[in-house]
Amino acid sequence: MSSPTPVGEPEVQTIRLDQDVVRVRQLVRTHAVAARLSLVEQTKLVTAASELARNTLVHGGGGRAEIQLVMNGPRRGVQASFTDEGPGIADLDLALTDGYTTAGGLGLGLSGARRLVDEFALDSKPGTGTRVTVVKWAR
Amino acid sequence: MERIPVLKLKDLLLVSIQVDLEDQSAIQLQEDLAERIVDTGAHGVIIDITALEIVDSFIGRMLSSIASISKVLDARTVVVGMRPAVAITLVELGLSLPGVRTALDVERGIELLTGMGDEEGAAT
Fold first, then answer.
1. Any idea what the CATH number is for the domain that residue B95 is in?
2. Is residue B48 part of a domain?
3. Which among A23, A35, A51, B25 has most CB atoms closer than 10 A?
């Protein structure tokens, strides 16, 4: 991952309920507009954030999202981090495989979210929780 | 949780999703639609997603299940009004909405359902 420089303070959204996933989407959308991402870029980032926020809720037992504007030289972008203190992911490669699911879904949440963003970092250990950080840059 | 209204229009049911969809609302809509199809004997369902800013894997799966459930209940489903950015994102996410017929707008969706013969029904 290149090093995105934070601009201002992150906005934090707790993820405890279904409607918090909707709030995360709205917060990410606001930042994506502020960073002047194109409509397609905005849509991709908000969709990725929706998948990751739902993972935090369903697999992590809740947690929080931190959303903030970032810069890398002249480029503006949005960074979103999702943190939980849930059971963690034992096999990261397997979790990132299309179609692999533990929740009876389509198994596209994590792998699909990775395709929709420019940068993706997954940090997880069994028993300590999971942190996923994504960045989408304006073209 | 917001409940999505289901409108009856002759022998069609029309759903226009105007809110940022919570997962629970999506599940509720699936149940409401199944009941209304049986109650009304409707032969078609139109789901208007013009106002939806994203379709993620959960909402996509919900649309596919609604199409499957309504098919079992002798009704066809057409999803209309998908935004271009949503379509691009959906494909990159890896979703192909199996079994879901689409049309560009409500008018074409109605045409598709009312003019739909047996041979077209095989497309799902």
1. 3.30.750.24
2. yes
3. A51
Q: What is the pLDDT of residues B88-112, one digit of tens each?
A: 999 999 888 888 999 999 999 999 9
Per-residue pLDDT of A9-32, as tens digits, reads 999 999 999 999 999 999 999 999
Cα angle B116, B117, B118 (rounded to 5 degrees) comes to 130
Q: What's residue B119's pLDDT?
A: 46
* pLDDT tens readout for residues A39-82: 999 999 999 999 999 999 999 999 999 999 999 999 999 999 99
The answer to whether the Cβ–Cβ distance between A108 and B58 falls below 8 Å is no
Per the CB < 8 A criterion, the answer to whether B68 and B45 are in contact is no
B58: chain A residues, CB-CB within 8 Å: 50, 54, 105
Q: Are B64 and B32 in contact (CB under 8 A)?
A: no
Identify the CATH class of A8-137: alpha beta
Give A109's contacts in chain B (Cβ within 8 Å).
Answer: 57
B93 in A contact zone (CB under 8 Å): yes
**Total tally of structural domains belonging to chain B:** 1
